Amino acid sequence: MKKLLALMLAALMVVSMMTGCSKSGAQDDGAQEAAVEVTAEDKGTVTVWVAEAVVDFTKSQIEAFKAANPNYAGFTFNVEAVGEGDATNNMVTDVEGGADLFGFAQDQLARLVAAGAVAPVTGANLEAVKANNDAGSVGAATMGDVVYAYPMTSDNGYFLYYDKSVVTDPSTLEAILADCEKAGKGLYFQINSGWYQTAFFFGTGCKLEYTTDNEGNFSGSNITYDSPEGLAALKAMIALHKSPAFYNGSSVPEAANAAAVVSGTWDSGAAQDLFGENYATAKLPTFSVDGKTYQFSGFGGFKLIGVKPQTDAKKLQVVNALAAYLTSEEVQLARFNAVGWGPSNLNAQKDPAIANDPALSALAAQLAYTIPQGQYPDNYWTLATSLGDSVISKEYDNATDDQLNEVLKTFADTCRSYAQ
Fold first, then answer.
1. Can you give the pLDDT at residue 355?
2. Greater confidence, 25 or 318?
3. pLDDT category, 14, cuts 50, 70, 90?
4. pTM of the entire structure?
5. H helices present in 301-344, as ranges
6. Dist. CA 162–CA 276, nearest whole Å
7. b or e along 19-42 (b: 16 or more beta carbons within 10 Å of the residue's beta carbon)?
8. Is residue 225 located within the same domain as residue 327?
9. Which of 48, 202, 210, 211 has the CB geometry, 3.0–4.6 Å to 297, for a possible disulfide?
10. Is residue 149 within 8 Å of residue 88, measured between CB atoms?
C-alpha cells in the first residue's frame, strides 16, 4: 500500500502540472498538457461503480463524455451497479481491486481516506469543485484542508413542510406552535431520533464528532453536549414536547393531524397530497431558549464521487476528467431530470425546474445551516433514541438545570466511551 500511495503522489504531481495552471496562462496550458498527453492510442480500462438507479444514466453520459474527448478513445469504461454503502465497504477492503471511480455518501469519507482508497482533487478540478458547488457539499468532500471528492448531490437532509392555511409564519418555532395550537393541528418532529435530534444540539452550537483510525475504528471524539449549549438544546426539546401541538414523528403519510412536518425530499409527494393547494415548504425555523434565539441545524447529506489513487498518470487524468464531467452543471441537471437527485452545483440549483421545486429549495436553504454527517457508532443512535424517549415520557418535565446537566454529562461521557 505504501508503494501504491507513493506512486500515486508522484502521478498526482505530474497531473497537477497539467491541470493546475492559472486562468490567464494559455501558454502554460499547452506545456502542461504536453507533460501528460493522452492520445487515442493510449489504452486502459476504467471501472465505474454507481447506484443501480443511475447505471443507465451514467452509461449514456459516459458515451457523451467519450464523444467529446476522442483522445480517450482507447479507454474502455465498465459501469457496474454498486450502491454507495457497498462501494465504500468494497473499496476499504480491497483498494487495488476496487473501482477507479465510485459514488459514495459523505459519511464514508473518513474510512476511504484512512484506507488510501480516494485520491485528492487537485489543480483546475479542485478550483472548479470549490467555485461551482454549494459550501455544504464542498465541506462534505473535505478532510482537514484537503478536498478528496467531487460533489454530486445536495439532497439529503430535513426541512419544514407546512399547511399555509394554518401556519402563517414558518420562521419561528414559537409562531408555528401557536398557529398549530390555535387550529388544533400538529407539528410533527421526531425528537427520539439521533438524526433529527441534532437539529437542536447543533443549532445551539454543540459538537458531536468522531475520528477513526486506519482500520476504521473510532479512535477519538469531540463531544460538547455537557455544556450551556447542550442545556439550551435539551430545554428546547422539553419545551417542544410540552406543547399540545407536538407529535413525535417524521413520516408525512403517518401525520394524520399535521399542519407542519419536519421531513425530507422523499416525502414531497405525500406532503403535496396531504396539504393540497395549501402545500408549502421552508427551511427549519429558529427557536428561543431563556431569551436567546437559535437557528435549527442538523445533519446534511451529500453524494460524492471518488477517484481511486492510480500509478498511471494518464489513466489518472482520464478518471479525473470523467469525475469532473459526471459532476458538472450539465450532468447534475440531467441527473435531476432523469432520477430526481438534487444538484450540488450552484448554477444547476438556479435552473427553473430546481429553483421552483419547493422541497429542493427549502432543503437548499436549510443545508446552509447543517453539518455534513460523518461516521457515528451504532450505539450513539440507540443512546439518542433513549434521550428523546425520556423527554417524551415526561421524565424531565420538572427537572432543574443541575439535573439536566447531569443527564447531559452522562450522555456525553457515554458517547465518548464509544471511541475509547
1. 87
2. 318
3. very low
4. 0.77
5. 313-326, 329-339
6. 11
7. bbbeeeeeeebeebeeebebeeeb
8. no
9. 202
10. no
CA dihedral 398, 400, 406, 407 (to 10 degrees): 30
Would you place residue 214 in the very low, low, confident or very high pLDDT band (cuts 50, 70, 90)? low
φ/ψ of residue 95, rounded to 5: -60, -50
pLDDT score of 381: 95
User: Closest by alpha carbon to 192, among 378, 385, 390, 379?
Assistant: 385
Number of domains making up the chain: 2
Q: Cα(93)–Cα(112) distance, rounded to whole angstroms? A: 10
Q: Which residue has the higher pLDDT, 261 or 35?
A: 261
DSSP secondary structure string for all residues of 192-252: TSTTTTHHHHHHHT--EEEEE-TTS-EEEEEE--SSHHHHHHHHHHHHHHHSTTEE----G
How would residue 85 be classed by pLDDT, with cut points 50, 70 and 90? confident
Residues 81 and 191 in one domain: no
Burial of 272 from C-beta contacts in 10 A (0-12 / 13-18 / 19+): middle
Averaged pLDDT, 27-48: 70
Q: Between these two residues, 48 and 84, which has the higher pLDDT value?
A: 48
Exposed (0-12), middle (13-18) or buried (19+): which is 186, by Cβ within 10 Å? buried
Q: Kindly state the percentage of the chain with pLDDT values over 90.
A: 79
- Per-residue pLDDT band at 364 (split at 50, 70, 90): confident
Cell of 100: 477507479
11 and 68 housed in the same domain: yes
149: domain range? 2-154+301-352
pLDDT, position 143: 84
CA dihedral 309, 312, 315, 320 (to 10 degrees): 40
Q: What is the pLDDT of residues 233-244, one digit of tens each?
A: 999 999 999 999
The three three-digit cell numbers of residue 295, written as one number? 437557528
Task: Please report, for the domain that includes residue 79, its CATH number.
Answer: 3.40.190.10
Rounded Cα distance, 120 and 142, in Å:
9
What are all long-range contacts of 382-390, with beta carbons under 8 Å and residues at least 24 apart?
383/194, 383/411, 383/414, 383/415, 384/192, 384/193, 384/194, 384/197, 385/192, 385/193, 385/194, 386/192, 387/192, 387/197, 387/411, 388/190, 388/191, 388/192, 388/193, 388/197, 388/237, 388/248, 389/192
Q: How far apart are the first and last CA of the chain?
A: 27
**All cell numbers assigned to 46:** 476504467
